[in-house]
Amino acid sequence: MAGASVIDDYVADLDTRLHGHQRTKIDLLTEARHSLLDAAECYRDAGFCEDDAQRKAVDDFGPAATIARSYQGELAAAYGARTLRSILFLLPVVHLIWEATRGIWYGSWDNFPGVTPPDWYYPFAQVNDSMGWAVASATGLALLVCRLMSRRVPDSRLIARCSAGVALVAVCGSISATSALMIATIAFEPARMVASPPLFLASVVAFVVMFRLAFMARRTVRFCV
């Protein structure tokens, strides 16, 4: 059927213009296709031929560029919420794993082998210890605010930008706190970094997770453009 490609071509055009989580993108495209097919069926019932019915349905739906902009906002907002949920769950988990590993192998900070840390070292450790919970609180609040905004703010891109901003600040704060602690440790006793293989592995895992979350936050920003 010659006219069958009209809706297919339109949906394919939308597909090339959209960037985001694949499952959410497929859901939006499927919704668009079903809406177009329903509209085309109404035009066929009104006496239009298949080709004209699909073309009128596409015309009524709107230019692909305009629809894509609206859909892209939804994709960005959905990915931003996904990123915040990942931060809310993963950062406290890796922090707990690291603390549990430290507790099992050494107990308190004073029990670490080697040189006793100087007084200036402990604030770095305390900031790193509290950062995971501060980030979890901030992202949890951001998720709540974004959900409330989604009911009152028509622009999904604004919601996505807010999610991306909180995600970037949260992840960068965690990376900065952990990096500062690592640099402080190297400054007074480099051997402490590898004194415990399990603790070193837990630190590597924490950095991998944080940089993965930073990548997700950066993608949220890109999806807003």
Number of helices: 7
Following the backbone from N to C, one meets helices and strands in this order, namely HHHHHHH
Distance between the termini: 38 Å
- Uncertain segments are none
SSE-based structural type: mainly alpha
Mean pLDDT: 85
Largest sheet: none
- CA gyration radius, whole angstroms: 25 Å
Instruction: Estimate the helix proportion, in percent.
Output: over 70%
Domain count, please report it.
2
**Count of individual beta strands:** 0
How much strand content do the residues show?
A: under 5%
Shape: elongated
Task: Describe the 3D structure.
This is DUF2637 domain-containing protein. It comes from Kibdelosporangium banguiense. The chain crosses the membrane at residues 87-105, 131-150, 162-188, 194-215. With 225 residues, the chain is mostly helical. The protein has two domains: 4-62; 77-224. The protein has seven helices and no strands. It has helices at residues 4-17, 22-45, 50-61, 64-105, 122-152, 156-188, 197-224. The protein is elongated, with a radius of gyration of 25 Å. The mean pLDDT is 85.
